[in-house]
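Human: If only I could read C-alpha coordinates as easily as an amino acid sequence. Take your time, and here it is.
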Amino acid sequence: MKIRRVVARRIWDSRGRPTVEVDVTNEDGTWGRGIAPAGASRGTREAVERRDGGDRFNGFDVQSALRGIEGEIAPLLLGRDVREQAAIDAALVALDGTPYKSRLGGNALVAASLAVLHAAAAHARLPLWRYLAQGRPVRLPMPQVQVFGGGAHAGRRVDVQDFMVIAIGATSFAQALEMTAEVYRCAGELMAARGSLAGVADEGGWWPDFARNEDALDLLVAAIERAKLVPGEDMAIALDIAASEFGSGGRYRLGLEQRELDSDGLAGMLVDWIAKYPIVSIEDPLAEDDEAGLAAFTRAVGKRVQVVGDDYLVTSAQRVRNAAERGACNCVLIKPNQAGTVTEAHQALLAAQEAGFRTIVSARSGETEDVAIVHLATGWDAGQLKVGSFARSERMAKWNEGVRVETGDDRPGGFAAWT
Protein backbone atom coordinates (compact mmCIF):
# COMPACT_ATOMS: atom_id res chain seq x y z
CA MET A 1 0.00 0.00 0.00
CA LYS A 2 1.67 3.19 -1.21
CA ILE A 3 1.77 6.56 0.54
CA ARG A 4 -0.22 9.11 -1.45
CA ARG A 5 -0.01 12.29 0.62
CA VAL A 6 2.12 13.82 3.41
CA VAL A 7 1.05 16.94 5.31
CA ALA A 8 3.05 18.70 8.04
CA ARG A 9 1.79 21.38 10.39
CA ARG A 10 2.79 23.27 13.50
CA ILE A 11 0.75 22.50 16.59
CA TRP A 12 1.35 23.23 20.30
CA ASP A 13 2.59 21.04 23.12
CA SER A 14 1.69 20.96 26.80
CA ARG A 15 4.01 23.88 27.55
CA GLY A 16 2.38 26.00 24.84
CA ARG A 17 5.47 25.62 22.66
CA PRO A 18 5.41 24.83 18.94
CA THR A 19 5.87 21.24 17.85
CA VAL A 20 5.62 19.19 14.66
CA GLU A 21 2.67 17.09 13.49
CA VAL A 22 2.68 14.93 10.34
CA ASP A 23 -0.23 13.21 8.58
CA VAL A 24 0.43 10.36 6.14
CA THR A 25 -2.41 9.22 3.83
CA ASN A 26 -2.40 5.95 1.90
CA GLU A 27 -3.80 5.21 -1.57
CA ASP A 28 -6.84 3.50 -0.02
CA GLY A 29 -7.69 6.62 2.03
CA THR A 30 -6.50 5.25 5.39
CA TRP A 31 -4.16 7.56 7.22
CA GLY A 32 -2.01 8.06 10.31
CA ARG A 33 -0.76 10.98 12.40
CA GLY A 34 2.47 11.42 14.31
CA ILE A 35 3.37 14.18 16.78
CA ALA A 36 6.78 15.04 18.19
CA PRO A 37 7.03 15.55 21.98
CA ALA A 38 9.85 17.54 23.59
CA GLY A 39 12.00 16.94 26.66
CA ALA A 40 13.26 19.44 29.23
CA SER A 41 16.14 17.31 30.52
CA ARG A 42 17.92 15.75 27.56
CA GLY A 43 20.91 13.49 27.07
CA THR A 44 23.75 14.98 25.08
CA ARG A 45 23.62 12.10 22.58
CA GLU A 46 19.90 12.09 21.83
CA ALA A 47 18.31 13.22 18.58
CA VAL A 48 18.38 17.01 18.25
CA GLU A 49 15.22 18.99 17.61
CA ARG A 50 15.25 21.47 14.76
CA ARG A 51 14.13 24.84 16.10
CA ASP A 52 14.24 28.23 14.40
CA GLY A 53 16.11 30.21 17.04
CA GLY A 54 15.76 33.97 17.24
CA ASP A 55 13.22 35.89 19.28
CA ARG A 56 9.97 34.33 18.07
CA PHE A 57 8.56 31.99 20.75
CA ASN A 58 11.95 32.23 22.50
CA GLY A 59 13.52 30.45 19.56
CA PHE A 60 11.27 27.38 19.80
CA ASP A 61 9.36 27.80 16.53
CA VAL A 62 9.52 24.88 14.06
CA GLN A 63 9.02 26.51 10.65
CA SER A 64 12.42 25.27 9.47
CA ALA A 65 11.52 21.71 10.50
CA LEU A 66 8.24 21.98 8.58
CA ARG A 67 10.07 23.21 5.49
CA GLY A 68 12.38 20.21 5.76
CA ILE A 69 9.40 17.87 5.86
CA GLU A 70 7.70 19.53 2.90
CA GLY A 71 10.85 19.85 0.81
CA GLU A 72 12.71 16.62 1.60
CA ILE A 73 10.85 14.15 3.82
CA ALA A 74 7.52 14.22 1.97
CA PRO A 75 9.12 13.55 -1.45
CA LEU A 76 11.04 10.66 0.14
CA LEU A 77 7.85 9.11 1.56
CA LEU A 78 5.53 9.53 -1.42
CA GLY A 79 5.03 6.29 -3.32
CA ARG A 80 6.69 4.11 -0.68
CA ASP A 81 4.97 1.08 0.79
CA VAL A 82 3.67 2.23 4.19
CA ARG A 83 4.20 -1.26 5.61
CA GLU A 84 7.98 -1.06 5.19
CA GLN A 85 8.65 0.80 8.45
CA ALA A 86 12.27 -0.25 8.87
CA ALA A 87 13.21 0.66 5.31
CA ILE A 88 11.43 4.01 5.55
CA ASP A 89 13.09 4.85 8.85
CA ALA A 90 16.51 3.90 7.48
CA ALA A 91 15.87 6.18 4.50
CA LEU A 92 14.90 9.03 6.84
CA VAL A 93 18.10 8.59 8.86
CA ALA A 94 20.20 8.51 5.68
CA LEU A 95 18.40 11.56 4.32
CA ASP A 96 19.27 13.55 7.43
CA GLY A 97 22.85 12.33 7.32
CA THR A 98 24.00 13.59 10.73
CA PRO A 99 24.79 11.58 13.88
CA TYR A 100 21.99 13.10 15.97
CA LYS A 101 19.43 14.11 13.30
CA SER A 102 20.38 17.77 13.61
CA ARG A 103 19.98 18.70 9.92
CA LEU A 104 16.29 17.86 9.43
CA GLY A 105 15.61 17.56 13.16
CA GLY A 106 14.71 14.65 15.39
CA ASN A 107 11.31 16.27 15.86
CA ALA A 108 10.63 16.16 12.10
CA LEU A 109 11.87 12.59 11.75
CA VAL A 110 9.99 11.12 14.71
CA ALA A 111 6.70 12.77 13.69
CA ALA A 112 7.06 11.36 10.17
CA SER A 113 8.09 7.93 11.45
CA LEU A 114 5.13 7.71 13.85
CA ALA A 115 2.74 8.91 11.14
CA VAL A 116 3.90 6.09 8.85
CA LEU A 117 3.41 3.57 11.67
CA HIS A 118 -0.13 4.78 12.39
CA ALA A 119 -0.97 4.76 8.67
CA ALA A 120 0.25 1.17 8.31
CA ALA A 121 -1.88 0.05 11.27
CA ALA A 122 -4.88 1.89 9.84
CA HIS A 123 -4.39 0.17 6.47
CA ALA A 124 -4.25 -3.21 8.26
CA ARG A 125 -7.49 -2.30 10.12
CA LEU A 126 -5.79 -3.15 13.41
CA PRO A 127 -5.31 -1.29 16.70
CA LEU A 128 -1.76 0.01 16.76
CA TRP A 129 -0.71 -2.23 19.65
CA ARG A 130 -1.93 -5.34 17.82
CA TYR A 131 -0.25 -4.29 14.59
CA LEU A 132 3.02 -3.99 16.55
CA ALA A 133 2.53 -7.29 18.38
CA GLN A 134 2.29 -9.23 15.09
CA GLY A 135 0.42 -12.08 16.73
CA ARG A 136 2.74 -12.42 19.73
CA PRO A 137 1.18 -12.53 23.23
CA VAL A 138 1.60 -9.17 24.98
CA ARG A 139 0.56 -7.51 28.24
CA LEU A 140 -0.61 -4.12 29.44
CA PRO A 141 2.35 -2.28 31.00
CA MET A 142 2.76 -1.45 34.68
CA PRO A 143 2.32 2.34 35.09
CA GLN A 144 4.96 4.56 36.71
CA VAL A 145 3.13 7.71 37.79
CA GLN A 146 4.65 10.95 39.05
CA VAL A 147 3.28 12.38 42.32
CA PHE A 148 5.82 15.20 42.88
CA GLY A 149 7.64 16.87 40.00
CA GLY A 150 11.07 18.38 40.51
CA GLY A 151 14.34 19.12 38.78
CA ALA A 152 14.03 20.71 35.34
CA HIS A 153 10.27 20.08 35.45
CA ALA A 154 9.73 22.39 38.43
CA GLY A 155 12.25 25.19 38.25
CA ARG A 156 14.80 23.04 40.12
CA ARG A 157 12.76 23.50 43.31
CA VAL A 158 14.08 20.10 44.41
CA ASP A 159 17.00 18.24 42.89
CA VAL A 160 15.25 14.93 42.17
CA GLN A 161 13.24 15.21 38.96
CA ASP A 162 10.46 12.66 39.53
CA PHE A 163 9.01 11.18 42.68
CA MET A 164 6.77 8.40 41.35
CA VAL A 165 4.69 5.48 42.56
CA ILE A 166 4.24 1.98 41.13
CA ALA A 167 1.17 -0.02 42.15
CA ILE A 168 3.08 -3.27 42.64
CA GLY A 169 0.04 -4.88 44.29
CA ALA A 170 -2.29 -4.24 41.34
CA THR A 171 -3.55 -7.08 39.18
CA SER A 172 -4.78 -4.97 36.26
CA PHE A 173 -3.99 -1.69 34.53
CA ALA A 174 -7.29 -0.22 35.73
CA GLN A 175 -6.60 -1.20 39.34
CA ALA A 176 -3.11 0.30 39.15
CA LEU A 177 -4.65 3.61 38.11
CA GLU A 178 -7.29 3.41 40.86
CA MET A 179 -4.63 2.94 43.52
CA THR A 180 -2.47 5.69 42.05
CA ALA A 181 -5.40 8.12 41.89
CA GLU A 182 -5.91 7.74 45.62
CA VAL A 183 -2.23 8.29 46.42
CA TYR A 184 -2.10 11.36 44.18
CA ARG A 185 -5.22 12.81 45.85
CA CYS A 186 -3.90 12.10 49.34
CA ALA A 187 -0.55 13.69 48.53
CA GLY A 188 -2.38 16.86 47.48
CA GLU A 189 -4.36 16.85 50.72
CA LEU A 190 -1.18 16.49 52.77
CA MET A 191 0.47 19.32 50.86
CA ALA A 192 -2.60 21.51 51.47
CA ALA A 193 -2.53 20.69 55.18
CA ARG A 194 1.09 21.86 55.30
CA GLY A 195 0.11 25.08 53.56
CA SER A 196 2.38 24.27 50.64
CA LEU A 197 -0.01 23.35 47.83
CA ALA A 198 1.17 25.56 44.96
CA GLY A 199 -0.13 23.93 41.79
CA VAL A 200 1.55 21.38 39.55
CA ALA A 201 4.84 20.99 37.68
CA ASP A 202 5.37 20.34 33.95
CA GLU A 203 4.14 16.75 34.03
CA GLY A 204 1.23 17.31 36.41
CA GLY A 205 2.89 16.25 39.65
CA TRP A 206 2.35 18.44 42.70
CA TRP A 207 4.72 21.41 42.79
CA PRO A 208 7.44 20.59 45.35
CA ASP A 209 7.85 22.70 48.46
CA PHE A 210 10.35 20.88 50.64
CA ALA A 211 13.40 21.80 52.68
CA ARG A 212 15.17 18.53 51.81
CA ASN A 213 14.84 16.04 48.98
CA GLU A 214 14.12 13.37 51.59
CA ASP A 215 11.07 15.29 52.81
CA ALA A 216 9.34 14.42 49.55
CA LEU A 217 9.95 10.73 50.21
CA ASP A 218 8.51 11.03 53.72
CA LEU A 219 5.39 12.73 52.37
CA LEU A 220 5.05 10.17 49.59
CA VAL A 221 5.06 7.32 52.12
CA ALA A 222 2.51 9.23 54.21
CA ALA A 223 0.29 9.66 51.13
CA ILE A 224 0.43 5.92 50.43
CA GLU A 225 -0.60 5.18 54.00
CA ARG A 226 -3.33 7.85 53.93
CA ALA A 227 -4.72 6.07 50.85
CA LYS A 228 -5.01 2.92 53.03
CA LEU A 229 -2.31 1.12 51.09
CA VAL A 230 0.77 -0.65 52.42
CA PRO A 231 4.11 0.83 51.35
CA GLY A 232 6.26 -1.84 49.77
CA GLU A 233 3.37 -4.28 49.34
CA ASP A 234 0.60 -2.41 47.56
CA MET A 235 2.55 0.62 46.40
CA ALA A 236 6.25 1.23 45.86
CA ILE A 237 8.35 4.28 44.96
CA ALA A 238 10.29 5.02 41.78
CA LEU A 239 12.68 7.96 41.41
CA ASP A 240 14.16 9.79 38.45
CA ILE A 241 17.24 11.48 39.87
CA ALA A 242 18.22 13.00 36.48
CA ALA A 243 21.71 13.41 37.92
CA SER A 244 23.15 14.85 34.69
CA GLU A 245 21.12 17.98 35.42
CA PHE A 246 23.14 18.80 38.56
CA GLY A 247 26.38 16.91 38.14
CA SER A 248 29.29 16.17 35.82
CA GLY A 249 32.86 14.99 36.12
CA GLY A 250 31.97 12.95 39.17
CA ARG A 251 30.81 15.97 41.21
CA TYR A 252 27.18 16.65 42.15
CA ARG A 253 25.77 19.88 43.53
CA LEU A 254 22.51 19.50 45.49
CA GLY A 255 21.11 23.00 45.25
CA LEU A 256 18.20 22.44 47.64
CA GLU A 257 20.48 21.32 50.46
CA GLN A 258 23.48 23.45 49.44
CA ARG A 259 26.01 20.64 49.49
CA GLU A 260 28.30 18.94 47.02
CA LEU A 261 28.91 15.20 46.76
CA ASP A 262 31.26 13.05 44.75
CA SER A 263 30.06 9.98 42.87
CA ASP A 264 30.43 7.69 45.89
CA GLY A 265 28.67 10.22 48.11
CA LEU A 266 25.62 10.52 45.85
CA ALA A 267 25.47 6.74 45.41
CA GLY A 268 25.73 6.29 49.18
CA MET A 269 22.85 8.72 49.76
CA LEU A 270 20.68 6.75 47.32
CA VAL A 271 21.63 3.43 48.90
CA ASP A 272 20.53 4.85 52.26
CA TRP A 273 17.20 5.89 50.71
CA ILE A 274 16.69 2.39 49.31
CA ALA A 275 17.23 0.96 52.80
CA LYS A 276 14.80 3.43 54.39
CA TYR A 277 12.00 3.70 51.80
CA PRO A 278 10.11 1.21 49.58
CA ILE A 279 12.07 2.20 46.45
CA VAL A 280 12.10 -0.32 43.60
CA SER A 281 13.38 1.79 40.69
CA ILE A 282 15.94 4.59 40.30
CA GLU A 283 16.48 6.33 36.97
CA ASP A 284 19.70 8.15 36.08
CA PRO A 285 21.13 7.84 39.62
CA LEU A 286 24.44 9.25 38.36
CA ALA A 287 25.31 11.49 35.43
CA GLU A 288 25.61 10.25 31.86
CA ASP A 289 29.39 10.83 31.95
CA ASP A 290 29.82 8.81 35.17
CA GLU A 291 29.82 5.31 33.69
CA ALA A 292 32.07 3.88 36.39
CA GLY A 293 29.74 5.25 39.05
CA LEU A 294 26.70 3.79 37.29
CA ALA A 295 28.36 0.39 37.10
CA ALA A 296 29.35 0.50 40.77
CA PHE A 297 25.85 1.56 41.79
CA THR A 298 24.28 -1.22 39.70
CA ARG A 299 26.57 -3.79 41.34
CA ALA A 300 25.59 -2.50 44.76
CA VAL A 301 21.79 -2.39 44.37
CA GLY A 302 20.92 -4.00 41.03
CA LYS A 303 19.53 -7.15 42.63
CA ARG A 304 17.15 -5.09 44.77
CA VAL A 305 16.04 -2.29 42.44
CA GLN A 306 15.97 -1.57 38.73
CA VAL A 307 18.64 0.93 37.73
CA VAL A 308 17.24 2.79 34.74
CA GLY A 309 19.38 4.42 32.07
CA ASP A 310 17.93 7.45 30.29
CA ASP A 311 20.45 10.22 29.55
CA TYR A 312 23.20 7.58 29.63
CA LEU A 313 21.53 5.22 27.13
CA VAL A 314 19.44 7.70 25.04
CA THR A 315 17.33 4.91 23.47
CA SER A 316 20.38 3.61 21.58
CA ALA A 317 20.74 -0.12 20.88
CA GLN A 318 24.52 0.15 20.77
CA ARG A 319 24.72 2.05 24.04
CA VAL A 320 22.44 -0.53 25.67
CA ARG A 321 24.76 -3.33 24.50
CA ASN A 322 27.78 -1.42 25.79
CA ALA A 323 26.10 -0.84 29.15
CA ALA A 324 25.27 -4.53 29.46
CA GLU A 325 28.92 -5.43 28.85
CA ARG A 326 30.08 -2.95 31.49
CA GLY A 327 27.40 -3.78 34.05
CA ALA A 328 25.97 -0.26 34.10
CA CYS A 329 22.15 -0.24 34.56
CA ASN A 330 19.69 -3.11 34.27
CA CYS A 331 16.77 -1.25 32.70
CA VAL A 332 16.40 1.19 29.80
CA LEU A 333 13.96 4.04 29.22
CA ILE A 334 12.61 3.98 25.66
CA LYS A 335 11.74 7.39 24.17
CA PRO A 336 11.02 7.35 20.42
CA ASN A 337 11.92 11.02 19.94
CA GLN A 338 15.19 10.46 21.77
CA ALA A 339 16.19 7.93 19.10
CA GLY A 340 14.57 9.78 16.20
CA THR A 341 12.57 6.98 14.57
CA VAL A 342 10.25 4.17 15.64
CA THR A 343 12.61 1.50 14.30
CA GLU A 344 15.60 2.79 16.27
CA ALA A 345 13.50 2.92 19.44
CA HIS A 346 12.37 -0.66 18.88
CA GLN A 347 15.95 -1.78 18.24
CA ALA A 348 16.99 -0.29 21.59
CA LEU A 349 14.15 -2.14 23.31
CA LEU A 350 15.09 -5.43 21.66
CA ALA A 351 18.75 -4.95 22.62
CA ALA A 352 17.66 -4.38 26.22
CA GLN A 353 15.49 -7.49 26.27
CA GLU A 354 18.33 -9.54 24.79
CA ALA A 355 20.63 -8.25 27.54
CA GLY A 356 18.13 -9.19 30.24
CA PHE A 357 17.29 -5.56 30.99
CA ARG A 358 13.80 -4.40 31.85
CA THR A 359 12.24 -1.76 29.61
CA ILE A 360 10.04 1.30 30.18
CA VAL A 361 8.40 3.21 27.34
CA SER A 362 8.31 6.88 28.32
CA ALA A 363 6.64 10.16 27.44
CA ARG A 364 8.46 13.52 27.62
CA SER A 365 7.78 16.58 29.76
CA GLY A 366 6.55 18.52 26.72
CA GLU A 367 3.68 16.32 25.54
CA THR A 368 0.53 16.39 23.39
CA GLU A 369 -2.73 14.47 23.14
CA ASP A 370 -0.95 11.74 21.14
CA VAL A 371 -1.33 8.29 22.75
CA ALA A 372 1.09 6.29 20.59
CA ILE A 373 3.41 5.37 23.46
CA VAL A 374 0.64 3.39 25.19
CA HIS A 375 0.41 1.21 22.10
CA LEU A 376 4.18 0.96 21.78
CA ALA A 377 4.50 -0.17 25.41
CA THR A 378 1.74 -2.74 24.91
CA GLY A 379 2.54 -4.00 21.42
CA TRP A 380 6.25 -4.30 22.19
CA ASP A 381 5.46 -5.95 25.56
CA ALA A 382 7.73 -3.44 27.28
CA GLY A 383 6.34 -4.22 30.73
CA GLN A 384 6.29 -0.63 32.03
CA LEU A 385 4.96 2.76 30.97
CA LYS A 386 5.98 6.20 32.25
CA VAL A 387 3.69 9.04 31.23
CA GLY A 388 3.98 11.68 33.96
CA SER A 389 1.45 12.40 36.64
CA PHE A 390 -2.25 11.74 37.23
CA ALA A 391 -3.35 15.18 36.07
CA ARG A 392 -3.39 17.32 32.89
CA SER A 393 -5.11 16.10 29.78
CA GLU A 394 -1.95 15.32 27.80
CA ARG A 395 -1.15 12.78 30.56
CA MET A 396 -4.65 11.50 31.23
CA ALA A 397 -5.24 10.89 27.50
CA LYS A 398 -2.53 8.23 27.69
CA TRP A 399 -3.65 6.63 30.94
CA ASN A 400 -7.22 6.54 29.62
CA GLU A 401 -6.04 4.93 26.38
CA GLY A 402 -4.53 2.14 28.45
CA VAL A 403 -7.91 1.57 30.09
CA ARG A 404 -9.56 1.40 26.66
CA VAL A 405 -7.00 -1.11 25.41
CA GLU A 406 -7.46 -3.28 28.51
CA THR A 407 -11.26 -3.26 28.37
CA GLY A 408 -11.71 -3.50 24.59
CA ASP A 409 -13.01 -6.55 22.79
CA ASP A 410 -9.59 -6.92 21.15
CA ARG A 411 -7.56 -6.82 24.36
CA PRO A 412 -4.00 -7.95 25.20
CA GLY A 413 -3.33 -11.15 27.07
CA GLY A 414 -2.71 -9.75 30.55
CA PHE A 415 -1.07 -7.22 32.84
CA ALA A 416 2.66 -6.90 33.41
CA ALA A 417 2.65 -7.42 37.17
CA TRP A 418 5.77 -6.27 39.00
CA THR A 419 8.27 -9.02 39.78
Summary: The mean pLDDT is 95. The longest strand covers residues 3-12. Residues 173-193 form the longest helix (21 residues).
